C-alpha cells in the first residue's frame, strides 16, 4: 500500500511539473501598443514572464518526485510539506489572473513598453486554469506522500514488534510450564506421594541395566 501510494504521488508530481512547464509557454496576457510610429501591434506575455515562479515550481515538483523514490517516512513528510507550500504558491498564481485589476500596466512593465502607448489588453485564462489543475494534482500527491509515510511507519513498527511478540509468547509458555510442574509437585506432596520417587526409580533401573554404569 505504501509503495503504491508513493508511485502514484510521483506520477502526479511529474504530471504537475509538465503541466506547469506547459502553462509557462502559454499566453497569459496580450496588450495592444500604438506608439504613433506605425500600425498598432499586439504583444503577448507568456506564463514564464507573467508568473516567473512557474518554471522554478515545476522544477521543485520534479525534484520532489525523484527524491520520493527512496525517501524514508520522515523524509516523505518533509517532502509533503514542500509540496504543500508549492500548492499554495500555485494557487495564488492561478487566482491572481482573475483578481489583478490592471493587467495592461503590469504587462507593459514586463515587456518594457511605455504605459501611454497602450491601446488595449486582454486576459487569457488557459494558463491559469492549467496552473490550478496542476496545483490540485500536487495537493493529491502531498496527501499520498503522507499516507505512504504513515503506512511505511506502521509496517516497520509491526516488523520490529513481531520478534518481540514471539519472544514474549515463548517466555510466557515456558513460565506457564514451569508453574504447572511446580504445582503438580506440591499436589503430589499434599497427597502424601514423593514426587521424586519416579525419577529415582528410573535412575536405579538405568544403573541396573547391563549397559548402565554402576554407582
Automatic annotation (TrEMBL):
Keywords: Membrane, Transmembrane, Transmembrane helix. It comes from the Bacteria. Pfam families: Trp_oprn_chp (PF09534). Residues 205-215 have a biased composition (Basic and acidic residues). Residues 187-215 are annotated as: Disordered. The chain crosses the membrane at residues 49-71, 78-100, 125-146. This is TIGR02234 family membrane protein. It comes from Mycolicibacterium brumae. The lineage of its organism: Bacteria, Bacillati, Actinomycetota, Actinomycetes, Mycobacteriales.
Amino acid at each position: 500500500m505504501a509503495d503504491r501510494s508513493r508511485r502514484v504521488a510521483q506520477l502526479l508530481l511529474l504530471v504537475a511539473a509538465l503541466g506547469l512547464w506547459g502553462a509557462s509557454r502559454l499566453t497569459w496576457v496580450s496588450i495592444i501598443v500604438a506608439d504613433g510610429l506605425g500600425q498598432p501591434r499586439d504583444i503577448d506575455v507568456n506564463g514564464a514572464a507573467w508568473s516567473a515562479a512557474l518554471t522554478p515550481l515545476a522544477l521543485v515538483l520534479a525534484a520532489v518526485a525523484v527524491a520520493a523514490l527512496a525517501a524514508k517516512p520522515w523524509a516523505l513528510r518533509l517532502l509533503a510539506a514542500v509540496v504543500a507550500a508549492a500548492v499554495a504558491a500555485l494557487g495564488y498564481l492561478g487566482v491572481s489572473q482573475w483578481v489583478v485589476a490592471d493587467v495592461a500596466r503590469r504587462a507593459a512593465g514586463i515587456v518594457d513598453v511605455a504605459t501611454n502607448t497602450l491601446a488595449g489588453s486582454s486576459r487569457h485564462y488557459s494558463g491559469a486554469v492549467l496552473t490550478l489543475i496542476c496545483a490540485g494534482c500536487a495537493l493529491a500527491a502531498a496527501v499520498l506522500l503522507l499516507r505512504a509515510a504513515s503506512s511505511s511507519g506502521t509496517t516497520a513498527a509491526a516488523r520490529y514488534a513481531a520478534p518481540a511478540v514471539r519472544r514474549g509468547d515463548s517466555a510466557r509458555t515456558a513460565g506457564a510450564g514451569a508453574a504447572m510442574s511446580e504445582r503438580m509437585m506440591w499436589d503430589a506432596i499434599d497427597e502424601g506421594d514423593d514426587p521424586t520417587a519416579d525419577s529415582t526409580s528410573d535412575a536405579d533401573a538405568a544403573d541396573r541395566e547391563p549397559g548402565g554404569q554402576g554407582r
